[in-house]
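During the no-cost extension, the postdoctoral fellow (Dr. R.K.) reprocessed legacy sequence entries with the updated structure-token encoder. One reprocessed record is reproduced below for audit purposes.
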Amino acid sequence: MYYSKCSIFQKPLRKTRFIQCMYVVGFMDLFGVSMIIPLLSHHVKSLGASPTVAGIVGSTYGVLQLFSSTVVGSWSDVVGRRYSLLTCLLLSALGYALLGLSTSITLFVVARIPVGLFKHSLSICRALLSDLVTETERPLVMGHLNAASSVGFILGPVVGGYLTEHEGGFYTSSFICASIFLLNAGLVWMLPWSDSQNRTDANANSSSKAHQQRAKQNGSDGTNHASGAEPEAGRREASPLQPAWRQLSSVLLRIRAVASSDMWDVFLVRLLMAVAIMLYYSNFSLALEERFALKPKVTGYLISYSSTLGALAGCLVGPVTQLYHNDMSALLLHSTVLTCSLIFLYATAASVWQVLLTSTFFAISTTIGRTCITDLELRRGGAQASGTLIGAGQSVTAVGRVLAPLLSGLAQEVSPCGPPSLGVVLALAAVLLLLVRMPRWDGKGRAKNP
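Re-encoded structure tokens follow.
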């Protein structure tokens, strides 16, 4: 074990290249997906679907993601990141290839099933990076991954929109997206996984000790409740070739452990903020048109500007975390307060310039908050269950995607400012919960106020 730990630290360049390859995977992932997302509603309507049917078909992906996120994340803890990541990439490629062959609504729905079930490659990348780096390095690395992914999400619609102008553009975009996922799978296959496993074992050792120390300070027995297993250092992942029933049993045990752990406050904060942010964006274009007579083209520029700032903000997470001395609870609280204030300023904006100002800082605060909540989930749950925890967080966000459109429609009946006003209420509830429930950490993994 100690030899493995030393050998990987003698190869910092290889570790850096491995992490940089994960950034490339994240960029290409959302680049390919964002080529398709803006075209889906138009394509399903071109197949003869009514608005109601189109809405039902569109919700299929979100429902599948809701139930599969935690399962796939836990599965990656059981069988290993490499095997699970390759499986997700290949089956996602299959789904997008089938989408390129969809000439009927039935085929369209069939194509969305493998994507809805296995499009969790970014979640597994986050879990893998969490395994590879220390707790102090994790916010910086996660921020860079979010930045790379956001750049892909900005550029993808441009390419997809250009291809749509040509005959059969949607089908061409679908096959290009499938090819991108295959290329990602090839890149993942060629990575030096033996070194990453050594690094994972070394980190499991240090993270397990830190988790036990925090647990003792909080009056518990030091058991890693979120992982549902013993916290011994250097515990190896199970072989992907073990029987399916044994894999399923391990997955269910991990999910049950996370569900029974005392982390409801972290997940509730994630849910409240996810819905609040979605309410901010829900009727953004329509509200600006009604309130300030802005044309959709100008609104599109404003959204692109905000997205670009969000991508750049990912690079600020590391320095800001150092400024807070690695106190992620305090950073999450402050970013949540800022987000709540910005949603309020947007809801009460008297001019377009005020909307521009709120959009500028909103992109930064939400990017930092998203990284903070993920880091807190991993700190509270333990490094041994990172895939399960990140998957559970994605499931919570999926619940927000289901609730936000309904709440937005109801609030919009009252006023164009109804959705963001409701978002202020939810964000304020998240702030109060953080003030009551969240402990403060001193940057060394010790609770200031246990």
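The chain has 18 helices and no strands. Confidence is low (pLDDT under 50) at residues 1-10, 204-237, 441-447. The remaining legacy entries will be reprocessed before the final report is submitted.
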